[in-house]
Amino acid sequence: MRILGVDPGLTRCGLGVVESGAARRVTMLDVRVATSPSTLETPARLAQIADVVEAMLDEHRPEAVAMERIFARSDVSTIMGTAQVSGVIMLAAERRGLPLSLYTPSEVKAAVTGDGRAGKEQVTFMVTRLLGLAQAPRPADAADALAIAIAHAWRGGAAPVGSAATTPAQRRWTEAEKAARRRG
Amino acid sequence: MRILGVDPGLTRCGLGVVESGAARRVTMLDVRVATSPSTLETPARLAQIADVVEAMLDEHRPEAVAMERIFARSDVSTIMGTAQVSGVIMLAAERRGLPLSLYTPSEVKAAVTGDGRAGKEQVTFMVTRLLGLAQAPRPADAADALAIAIAHAWRGGAAPVGSAATTPAQRRWTEAEKAARRRG
């Protein structure tokens, strides 16, 4: 299953395309951070972000979109722009007939690190390991978008851990999990 | 000048097209309230609203869009949906090359009634008179959208009042203003 993960934002919008296969294997197809300068008016900023999102949807043709859920009680200085971006992305998904799922930051952290209160560095570390990347995705918005896509790929199931891990991907998960625990 | 006024909302989105002419004359070309049921998921609701907005933009070809400004400290139960709708409408305007202006409720009330703290009934009353309508636009979202369009048509100038009123539209304004004052 191919998934576009989105960490919505008006200044920086993280976008990651992940393909999930058998045995919870996940690979990265693309990662970008769409940006817009605060010197522009909001409509022009939304269009800049929407252009990148729509280009990725049309290029990679994901089967689903997963996005971070926004709360009305979040940081009020950025909440309006984030909500507006999320609306634009929801419409783009809907008009392509793609199901869109929302995940809280805690759900995403729990899915990729096993700890709903994990820090940004731990999320980035696990995303890098799980996707078998040579370098950590930067900035954090990019790693977050990939984490959201992985969370969606894995929803509804427990992560394979311990001696049951038999595939290379599962071993990588287990090792990374242990390493993360040592660091955490 | 032809203006689309928007009172954004996910459950009800007021939309009014107003044409402004010489001597502050304003006429109504169209008014609608786009709705979406709360039983649908947000992406589908946004698409229902966006379809109506885009149809009106394409049918009436306004030269500008005027929308109510949303504040992060508004009612939290509806603020997210309202912000998402506003983002979708901003993108639709931007992609058609239309300038979009935002007005606070106080600015709109002051423009059409002379009182920034006027009630909904007074706004509806003045909108009905100013546009020379036989019936008051209902629901309030429809009247609000028309009031926002009128506010944009008149921005940057004082309303003609008193003995200086010479055109039929100006006389109508003056009479309506007096009537509103008597009622207020």
What does this protein structure show overall?
- Chains A, B: Belongs to the RuvC family.
- Chains A, B: Pfam families: RuvC.
- Two copies of one chain form a homodimer.
- Chain A has about 180 residues and is α/β, with parallel strands linked by helices.
- In chain A, about 50% of the residues lie in helices and about 20% in strands.
- Chain A contains six helices and five strands.
- Chain A has helices spanning about 40-60, 75-95, 105-115, 120-130, 140-155, 170-184; strands spanning about 1-5, 10-20, 25-35, 65-70, 100-105.
- Chain A has a five-stranded mixed sheet with strand order 3-2-1-4-5.
- In chain A, strand 1 and strand 2 form a beta hairpin.
- The longest helix of chain A has 20 residues, at about 75-95.
- Residues about 155-170 of chain A have low confidence and may be disordered.
- Chains A and B meet through helix 1 and helix 2 of A and helix 1 and helix 2 of B.
Helix and strand element order of chain A: EEEHEHEHHHH
Output the strand order for the largest sheet of chain A: 3-2-1-4-5
Helix proportion of chain A: 40-55%
Query: How does the overall form of chain A come out from the CA principal axes?
Result: globular
Number of helices of chain A: 6
> Biggest β-sheet of chain A: count, sense, barrel?
5 strands, mixed
| Biggest chain-to-chain interface with counts | A-B, 26 and 26 residues
CATH class of chain A: Alpha Beta
Q: Rg of chain A, please?
A: 16 Å
Supply the number of structural domains of chain A. 1
Q: For this entry, what is the oligomeric state of its chains? A: homodimer
Question: In percent terms, what proportion of residues of chain A is strand?
Answer: 15-25%
The CATH H-level homologous superfamily of chain A: Ribonuclease H-like superfamily/Ribonuclease H
**Helix vs. strand class of chain A:** alpha/beta
CATH architecture of chain A: 2-Layer Sandwich
N→C terminal distance of chain A? 31 Å
How many E-type strands of chain A? 5
Low-confidence stretches of chain A: 156-168
CATH topology of chain A: Nucleotidyltransferase, domain 5
Mean pLDDT of chain A: 87
Catalytic activity (chains A, B): Endonucleolytic cleavage at a junction such as a reciprocal single-stranded crossover between two homologous DNA duplexes (Holliday junction)
Binding site for Mg(2+) 1 (chains A, B): 7, 141
Keywords (chains A, B): Cytoplasm, DNA damage, DNA recombination, DNA repair, DNA-binding, Endonuclease, Hydrolase, Magnesium, Metal-binding, Nuclease
Active site (chains A, B): 7, 68, 141
